[in-house]
Amino acid sequence: MRNLFKLALRGLLRNRRRSLVTLLAIAFGFSAIALFAGYTHNVYDGMARGAVHSEMLGHLTLNKRGMRKEGKLDPERYLLTANEVATITRLLKDEPHVVLVAPRLALSGLVSNGRASTIFIAEGIAPSAMEYLQKDVLTEREKKSGLYDNFKKKLDPAHSEVVALSEGLVEMLHLSGGEQAQVLVNTLTGQANALDVTVGHTFNTGNAGSNDKFAFVSLALAQSLLDAEGRADRLTILLDDMAQTEAMRTRLSEKLHAAGFDVEIMTWQELSDFYNQVHGMFDMIFGFIFSIVLTVVVMSVANSMGMTVVERTREIGTLRAIGLKRSGVVRLFTTESMLLTLIGCTVGLLITLGVRWGINVANISYVPPNSASPVPLLVDMDYGRVLFTFALMGTVGTLAAYLPARRAARQAIIDALGHV
User: 341, exposed or middle or buried, with CB in 10 Å at 0-12, 13-18, 19+?
Assistant: First the structure.
């Protein structure tokens, strides 16, 4: 086996230029796949953390069955009562992995600066729960970039009348921190209810479509506006480990149904349409790029090994004449192809590490589609896809030499020796 690898390596070194060109084709192809996989991995991770912490979906969302459909027409019927909120919260907090249970209440209406009015969509949540939900939204690299400084939402725990408004909404109404505004909503029974509020923290939603209409208010203020004292439309559940999401959904559903609560629990992935759409799009793009690069690698290796076999036909005849079996000839050339592919993938991995380091320290930023602000361009290492690509390219590259090697091995010895 050692002699086989020696002969295969010598065969590659005979025509260094051809081997180098093929090796670089493999290396750059592997690097392109690995870098794109690392970029999408970073995007997926950022969107997952954004959905759980920045959008404040939590890992699980609990509401009465039917709330998402019928509840839009008859919200009062499907709200959780104060007693239900307290009982369910107590049951959930007894479970492992559950670190936060936050009652939520959505509302919408008109907000005015005294001269002009516009619509707003708001989320009612306790200030302490909002702070806890956003605790792990950014990685250390993202904090250092400074691009996410205006994404965090804050409410004043000491003053329930202070609201957090999106930057576009504040700009549209020409408001600034500390100024008064008026909000008008319909209560659960359909009566108009208006209150004065104070503009507090402003934030960027990260989405151009919602940055001019979104707001956060304290849960107490939302309940007062809707005349829904102690009630909530859903409970947001935060876990200590995202990997436990599905298992905890099953466990909590069984426990609550056994306790007589007719509720449904949805995961953050089911609620985040944006995450699912972007994930599906990037997976399709990755598959398209992967198939193109794999085709280029196979054609490059097959072409290189085909030319090598033709040039070494007389050598093959000599080897066959001194007793090397046909299978030995096939093994020799497939081993050459395997070495070429594996060395190319290894060089590609080194290129990937170098380019990745350069991108991550360059502080490059860009504005994604439908986004309201720039985000940093960062590349992770998607070890699963890198290993898969390494193994698949090694296998396919090895098999690419099989047909020309088999054709040469089946040639008559006399004809091979007389080949010119």
Answer: buried
Enter the pTM of the model: 0.78
pLDDT digits (tens, 9 = 90+) for 81-136: 999 999 999 999 888 889 999 999 999 999 998 888 999 999 999 999 988 888 76
DSSP string over 97-137 = TEEEEEEEEEEEEEEE-SS-EEEEEEEEE-HHHHHHHTTTS
SS3 214: strand
pLDDT per residue over 159-177, tens digit each? 888 999 988 888 889 888 8
User: What is the distance between the terminal CA atoms of the chain, rounded to a whole angstrom?
Assistant: 30
CA 218 remoteness from chain centre: 30
Distance, in Å, from the CA atom of 402 to the CA atom of 397, rounded to the nearest integer, reads: 9
Q: Could you tell me which of 216, 224, 100 has the C-alpha nearest to residue 154? A: 216
Would you give the distance in Å from CA 116 to the centre of its chain? 40
Other CB atoms within 10 A of residue 298 CB: 16
